[in-house]
Structures are given as structure tokens and as C-alpha cells.
Design goal:
heterodimer, A: 262 residues, mainly alpha, MetI-like fold, 12 helices, globular, B: 369 residues, alpha+beta, 5-stranded antiparallel sheet, 9 helices, 20 strands, 35% strand, disordered C terminus
Chain lengths: 262, 369
């Protein structure tokens, strides 16, 4: 038993080394911006670069729009599929795999060809970029929402709400969405993480986004790309931590801890 | 005039006809149970009343108004589900207040009504708990309070006790009936549990293959079953094959022994039929007991094979040819039973012996399986 436990720890340690060693190496490398000393000069260079802030805020803005558009489109669809056409679930699951199977470059060229001439000349509109991002984020949003819906008794809850007089709006906002909280947060942060670092669509549609900026930095600088990579990891982990914290606070609330109010 | 009326309801799922020409009238304040085995159409019928399914044909009237095409949220019906369906994100108080909140009842009225409901289900101290912090029985009581809080036109319960332990089931069954009586609310109750249906209802509708086989008071359903299926579905029943000897006098032969049934038989001499006798209608006597001829009671001889102690009753199992016949007696410590293997006489009143043609017996037995 003791030997088994020791083995478990060994595998855990190996896993940690596998994951953290490259990251630690990247972090150490990012601190070598100044000769012979460890410093945050590469991080400073990144932050003082106006292009960084411009591209990052642009990508953040696009990511937020993608989250809003993606959730508005996919959440009601997923609920509708679960309630009305559950037999269509396998078909939708195949669709969710398409963005993984079809390379983004194909998607980008498809969008450009389709939307570069009237009556749908949208190629210069950020709406087309957001639409493309919604497609890229579709598997993550749909699967998160789908997992959330599977975890709750959607049919039972919706019928209970309807028998108590609730229409679809009440059902959605008072019953379904509050119980999908963890799934929605997960979909939101995954989408943010994906969109902020996305390169191909932004590059081919010629938008000043954060992904192309990171690629450019990688070609022209030595230490700043490492700093950006570490910051990007930090952002992703921060987002995951936030999901955990918010979900736990939701669970605690559900458990009635600290709530005495009516 | 009936408060809830179902007229000629038909419902199919694909090629599977689930409800067939079903008609039912329920008076205001009445408690009616839909009783039947799996797939008999009882839940589909309830769901059509609730508005979750639409009948292919027929009409559903509530207080004289046709509600067949009305959305479920406009029918003003309270529904209780087998799996409780409490909203996990809301505590008990908010669950109960949900319907009132949707109806935009003013806050003071909502609070008052929720307090009344909590008192009704004896769960005042659980008001701030969330569903996952409650037992199954408590959750179902909250679900009941939530359904009743909106003062629905009728209450629909879909196997509400199926997921609960036997002891809690009994308690909650009584609670449901008490609340229904107190609020005088029209109630449709779906169950596959005959004891539950018989103990709680004003009337029971026994369903088979999408149709109502018989509807009547629990007493009628149990004591005067209209069809072999109802007879076999409700309670325990002894089925004995018999041959007609003399139709006019009701003389038949069972396992080589002659007995008479009440009245004359509508069958030719020599034809086969089956007799149905409830176990509690049969009294067991030792073979040495005096034969009281002419007392209107019949006798069949057999061998006592087993005694089963079932708590409040003792079931005596008597071998009659290759068949087993059950005879139930209340568990009285002063009773002296014959020994296993003894020859015994089974005595029963002619009136307690119901007759059906053999074909009907085959249907009943097949359905029971």
C-alpha cells in the first residue's frame, strides 16, 4: 500500500516536471533581457509598446463580442435541441468537430471568398471576424453548455416551471441559465483564451489583433515572446482560477452557506 | 357537471397508439387515480391534461372551456413529478414562491402564502435549505407545496411516491390526501401501485393498453371488478379452471370436485370457464370439521402446503390438483392452523366466486405477466 502511494507520488512528480519544466525555462529565459542579471525588462518592453495595448484591447473586445454572439446563438440552440429534438444531438456533435477538422486557413479563405463581393461585402467588417471566431469557439461553447444541460434535469425543470405559469423567457432566465452558471463561465473563459491568441483568421482578414502581434514579436525579438508566452499562460490560469472561484461561490450559495436572506 | 372532462382522446407516438378513445369526467374537488402497469397510457393522459402533450384527437375541457390547445403555462394546473423537479438554484422558500413570482403576486401576499404552505407541509424550519440538503420525502413535500401555492384549478401528480422508501411513502400518501381534502382541490393521481390508488382515491380508473378498463370507487374496483384484467391487476386473485356441468343451476366441476356458483351460467354444459376468488373470501377448515350443508357456502378439498406469515395476515397455501390456492386470514395469535400436509377444506360463499370464460382468463394472465 505504502509502495503504491510512493509510486503515485512519483508519477505525479514526473507529470509536474513534464508540464512545468518548459514553462519554468521559458520564464527564466524571459528574465534574461539584460545581460548577466535577471530582470523584468522584457515584460516592461512589452507593456510600454503601444501596439501591445492596442492589439490586446482589440482582441479582448473581439473576444467579448464573440462570447456574447456565441452564447446568444448556441445556448438557446442547445436548450432547444435538448428539449425538442434530442435525436439531433449526435448530428450536432459531429458539427462541433468540424472546426477541429477543417483548418482555420480554409475557414478564412472561405469567408473571404464568400463575403468579399456584394451583396455580402463584409470582409472589412469586424462582424465577419467575430462570426469566424464564433465558428472557432463553437465546439468549446456547445460542449460546455451541453455538459451543463446533461447535468441538470432540463425536461423536468422546464415542465415544472411551465406548470407554474412560466413562459420561455422566465424559464430561461430564472431556471435554466442560473443552473448553467458553471458551464457558461467555462464557455466564456475558454472562448476568451482562444480568441485572444488566435492568429490565422485575424492575420488573413488583416485585423490588428493580439495573435498576429505575438507572431510578429516572435520573429523580431528574443525575450519578449517568452514574456508574452508566460503572460498568456498567466491569463489562461487566471481565467481557470476565476471559473473555479465563481463556481465554488455558486455552489456555496446553492448549499445555503452564508445565506439567511429570503 | 364535471369540472375536468376528457372526450374521445387519442394519442399515438409514431405507429404506437398510446391512448385510445379515452373519456373521463372528474368532478370538482374529486380525487381520481389513473392506475395501470407500464405503458398503459396513464402518464401520457396526465401529460395531455397538463398540456405537455397534445391529443391527436379529442377534447379536454376544464370548467367547460376547451383547453386542448392551450400552452401548459396557461392552464393554471399544479403538477408534482416523480423526481421532484425542484429548482436547484433556489431554496425551499423561493421554490414555493416561484409560481407566485411568475404571476406577479405582491410581495406581502407571496410571503404570507409561502408561510402558509410551509406550515401545511410542516417544514417551516427548512425554509432556507436548498433541495440537495433535503431528503426525498422532504423534497416531494416542497414540490407539493410549490404546486399548491398557486391555487391551481387542479393538481396533477405523476407517480409522486415511486422514488421514496416504503415508510415515507405511506406517510406522504396520507399527507397528500389530507392536503387535498383540506384544500378541496381537484386531483388526478397517476400510479402503478394498486394499494396506493385504492387507499387515497375517491375513484380509481384502471387503465390497460390506452383505455380505461373500469372506473369506480376503490370498493367497487376491488369487490366488483368489471373485467378479468381488473380482477387480476387489483389485489391477489385465485384463478381456477372449471367445467360447466349444469348451466341453469350454476353447477361446475373444479379439479374433479363439484361446486355451485351464484346464479345460472351463460355457457353450455361441458364448456370450460374460470373462477376467480379473492384469498380473503376463502376460509380454511380441517377435514374433520362438520360440514354445514345448505349454508350457501361451497367447499373444495385440498392439502395444506404452506403457511406464509405476511405481517397482519397469514396466507395459507393449499394444493388443489396441480394448482396453488391462497386463503388469507387476519393474524390472530389465538388462531390454530392445520399442520402442513393436512387435508383441508376451503369454504367460500357462492357470491364471492366470479366467473369468466376461459379466453378472458388467458388474456388476464397474459397481461399480468
Amino acid at each position: 500500500m505504502k509502495q503504491r502511494k510512493g509510486l503515485s507520488w512519483l508519477w505525479f512528480a514526473l507529470g509536474m516536471v513534464y508540464f512545468f519544466l518548459p514553462l519554468a525555462a521559458t520564464f527564466l529565459f524571459s528574465l534574461r533581457g539584460k545581460r548577466d542579471v535577471l530582470s523584468f525588462v522584457a515584460y516592461k518592453n512589452v507593456f510600454v509598446d503601444p501596439i501591445f495595448l492596442r492589439t490586446f484591447s482589440f482582441s479582448l473586445e473581439m473576444a467579448i463580442l464573440t462570447v456574447v454572439a456565441g452564447l446568444a446563438l448556441i445556448v438557446p440552440t442547445a436548450i432547444w435541441i435538448h428539449l425538442k429534438v434530442p435525436k439531433a444531438k449526435p448530428v450536432i456533435e459531429i458539427f462541433t468537430l468540424l472546426p477541429f477538422v477543417i483548418p482555420p486557413i480554409i475557414l478564412a479563405f472561405g469567408l473571404i471568398r464568400t463575403y468579399s463581393r456584394p451583396p455580402l461585402a463584409l470582409v472589412s467588417s469586424p462582424a465577419l471576424l467575430v462570426a469566424g471566431y464564433v465558428i472557432v469557439a463553437f465546439p468549446y461553447i456547445y460542449r460546455s453548455v451541453d455538459a451543463g444541460l446533461r447535468a441538470m434535469d432540463l425536461r423536468g425543470l422546464s415542465e415544472a416551471a411551465q406548470s407554474l405559469g412560466a413562459g420561455w423567457i422566465h424559464l430561461l432566465f430564472l431556471v435554466v441559465l442560473p443552473n448553467l452558471r458553471a458551464a457558461l463561465l467555462s464557455a466564456t473563459f475558454l472562448t476568451l483564451a482562444i480568441v485572444i491568441g488566435e492568429l490565422t483568421l485575424a492575420n488573413l482578414l488583416a485585423w490588428p489583433a493580439f495573435g498576429p502581434y505575438m507572431a510578429l514579436m516572435g520573429r523580431n525579438r528574443a525575450y519578449e515572446p517568452a514574456a508574452l508566452a508566460v503572460m498568456s499562460f498567466g491569463l489562461t490560469w487566471g481565467a481557470i482560477g476565476l471559473i473555479q472561484a465563481l463556481t465554488r461561490s455558486g455552489r456555496d450559495k446553492s448549499a445555503g452557506l452564508g445565506t439567511g436572506a429570503r | 357537471m364535471a369540472f375536468l372532462e376528457l372526450h374521445g382522446i387519442n394519442k399515438s407516438f409514431g405507429s404506437n397508439a398510446v391512448v385510445k378513445s379515452l373519456s373521463l369526467d372528474v368532478a370538482k374537488g374529486e380525487f381520481v387515480s389513473l392506475l395501470g402497469g407500464s405503458g398503459c397510457g396513464k402518464t401520457t393522459t396526465l401529460r395531455m391534461i397538463a398540456g405537455f402533450e397534445t391529443p391527436d384527437e379529442g377534447r379536454i375541457l376544464m370548467d367547460g372551456a376547451d383547453v386542448s390547445g392551450l400552452a401548459p403555462n396557461r392552464r393554471k394546473l399544479g403538477m408534482v413529478f416523480q423526481n421532484y423537479a425542484l429548482f436547484p438554484n433556489m431554496n425551499v422558500r423561493r421554490n414555493i414562491a416561484f409560481g407566485l413570482r411568475i404571476a406577479r403576486a405582491d410581495k406581502a401576499r407571496t410571503e404570507r402564502r409561502v408561510d402558509e404552505m410551509l406550515e401545511l407541509i410542516h417544514m417551516e424550519e427548512f425554509a432556507q435549505r436548498f433541495p440537495h440538503q433535503l431528503s426525498g420525502g422532504q423534497q416531494q413535500r416542497v414540490a407539493l407545496a410549490r404546486a399548491v401555492a398557486i391555487e391551481p384549478a387542479a393538481l396533477l401528480l405523476d407517480e409522486p411516491l415511486s422514488a421514496l422508501d416504503a415508510k415515507i411513502r405511506l406517510k406522504l400518501r396520507d399527507d397528500i390526501r389530507a392536503i387535498q381534502r383540506r384544500l378541496k382541490i381537484t386531483t388526478i393521481y397517476v400510479t402503478h401501485d394498486q394499494e396506493e390508488a385504492l387507499s387515497i382515491s375517491d375513484r380509481v380508473a384502471v387503465m390497460l393498453a390506452g383505455r380505461i378498463e373500469q372506473i369506480g370507487s376503490p370498493f367497487e374496483i376491488y369487490n366488483r371488478p368489471a373485467t378479468p384484467y381488473v380482477a387480476s391487476f387489483i389485489g391477489t386473485l385465485n384463478l381456477l379452471p372449471a367445467r360447466v356441468l349444469e348451466a341453469a343451476s350454476g353447477l361446475v366441476e373444479v379439479d374433479g370436485q363439484r361446486i355451485r356458483v351464484a346464479g345460472s351460467l351463460d355457457a353450455a354444459a361441458g364448456s370450460e370457464l374460470s373462477l376467480r376468488i379473492r384469498p380473503e373470501a376463502i376460509a380454511i377448515e380441517g377435514s374433520s370439521a362438520a360440514n354445514e350443508a345448505g349454508d350457501g357456502r361451497e367447499t373444495l378439498r385440498g392439502k395444506l402446503e404452506n403457511l406464509k406469515f405476511l405481517g397482519s395476515i397469514v396466507r395459507q397455501v393449499v394444493a388443489l390438483g396441480s394448482r396453488e390456492v391462497y386463503a388469507d386470514v387476519f393474524n390472530d395469535p389465538s388462531l390454530v392452523f392445520p399442520s402442513i400436509g393436512d387435508e383441508v377444506r376451503m369454504r367460500f360463499a357462492r357470491e364471492s366466486c366470479l366467473v369468466s370464460p376461459n379466453a378472458a382468463l388467458a388474456v388476464a394472465v397474459e397481461t399480468e405477466d
